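# nightly structure sweep
# worker-07 picked up a monomer target from the shared queue
# config: single-sequence mode, recycle default, output format = structure tokens
# input follows
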Amino acid sequence: MNASTHPAANGAVPSSRGGVREVVALAFPVVLTQLSATMMGIVDSAMVGRLGPTQLAAVGFSSIWLWTIFSLVYGTATGVQTFVSQADGAGNERACGPWAWQSFYAVFPATALIVLALAPVLTPLLALLGPSPDLQLSAVEYTAARLIGELGLAVTMVLTSFFRGLGDTRTPLYVTLLANAVNAALDYTLIFGEFGFPEWGVRGAGTATAVSSWVGAAVFIALFRRRKIAQRFDTDPVAPSRAAIARFLRTGAPIGGQWCVGMTAFACFTTVVARMGDESMAASQAFVMLLSLSFMQAMGISVAASTLVGRYVGARDPEAVQRTFRSALGVGLALSGAIAVLFVAIPGPLLRIFTDDSDVMALGRPLLLIGALFQIFDLMGIVSEGALRGAGDTRWPFLVQTAFGWGFFVPAAYGVGVMLDGGLTAAWAAGVVYVGALAFVMVRRFRSGAWQRISI
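# output follows
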């Protein structure tokens, strides 16, 4: 843990716990980390977008479905943050390392099985989703090259959550920056065939992402096993424990389930968009990349809220827990408001980062007006869910996400976008209603105090 982020550091008094300053101190590196991670997708999209709308659409389509397929294990991996933050808050530092190992034993084999099952069926699986033939060919090429990198990403998810649980949000930032530098360099050389490298197009973008994922994983492992960390948090290897893994999964699996349900709903929404045409899919992909700038800020603040809530639950300080939630929500709303102003004020320049195609630009401009409101609601839901996760309240958000995602979002988007012929803008408008309702119930859940009855 960074000393400056510990509640007792610098003579901090209990009344300062969970205040805006503490939330920002933890959240700022996380926001930078999340934005940096998003840049990997933005760099892929920006460079591939120069190859044409179909290639841009293929990268977006493939990336969403890859994340959807693996979101169950990745979301489950983040559960280690809850155990580590609560153990650290309770003063039991040497319990932190073993929880990372039990998480690894639960997550890595599952990721490997998915990779092995997915590799031989990529072409027929993507064909079932119904994109255009040209988009399908590019999507298969990109996905096949990127697939092996998902194993490295599984390691990264576990160890990122471990360090964040300790309140160390800078280490994940530095590792992510390094991985992104590798990705950007390989993107340029492998997509366009520069400096004597082969010109692989979308396959080059997938290869760059896979290699950079493994670079990040290797650095994380080295830092996790560093002597100072090992001695303080007992990060030496431990044997798998069936009881510990089961306990971890009771809290972590609902997080993975929530991620999976949310992403599956969004991936199906993306499939509906892809069937509207390559230009609609390209416009949606550019919009999603811009939206992710706000989304990743929300995720960063959510991580900070989760860490601090877990710490103060472990320290049995419910007032600091409530203060953390209010502070995180306030910081998040200020940032999302600034993003909303940019979306409304300069939609054209933002979209031109990805494409100069006039049809794609025309479809994308109204999406940014919708996105201004969308990302505010999304932030409220994400921050609330992070606070609930830190308290160990993971099952209820999973059930709500399932009901709202499949009970409303997907059928509403299909109904207004396709059946009523409202097109891309109407489909995304349904998404605004979805995230707004989800935000309302998540905020209500935390304020109800139900998390105080949760024990992990």
